[in-house]
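I am writing to request your help with a piece of structural work I have in hand. Thank you for your consideration; the sequence and its tokens are set out here:
=====
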Amino acid sequence: MPEDNVSQPTSQSPASTEADDKTPWYAIRLFSNCQNKVDEYFKEHGVESFIPMQYRVYEDENGKPKRKLKPVVSNLIFVKKSLPQADMMHLVSQGQFKMSVITKERSGRDYYEIPAKQMREFKAMCNPEIEMRKFLSAEQAKLKVGTPVLVCHGPLKGLTGRLVRQSHKYYLLKEVPGMGVMLKVSRWCCQPFEESK
């Protein structure tokens, strides 16, 4: 395949623009199975959203296995805080769908804002094409003991998370409100890392 038409990244490329973006995200808990409709609702109002997806295998009418992308969690959606907080909360509370923004504490009113860098890494780790990946509930993720690390080599280079061990294998764990994702990694590719608060 000729490579003459392959464009080289520039300083204005979408990747560099996304890396410069510091806009935080919210995790929103849904109280009904209407993820796709909520996704459309936010997009209609100019708000970027993200639903973690994974391939599920099912049998078609001929008994042949097929793969189909399905949401990892049926009651969770992430939205970018691209509007002032009051406008974002108006969208959440005034829409036809029952939902709420995850807060820092269960009984608190402070919304948990996911930093842009953390969300970029989480989205990258949720790529459905990646193998050797596991999704965890928020409770399962909190129970995992591990060391904060930066991946210095290999395909996951630049990602941060906790290095955890399970079934004699090492994984990079990234947590966000509502869930976590783990990718298989070599511990020799990681070095201890302290994230700035």
In short: The longest strand covers residues 169-176. Residues 59 and 65 are 4 Å apart (CA to CA). Residues 1-14 have pLDDT under 50 and may be disordered. The longest helix spans residues 35-44.
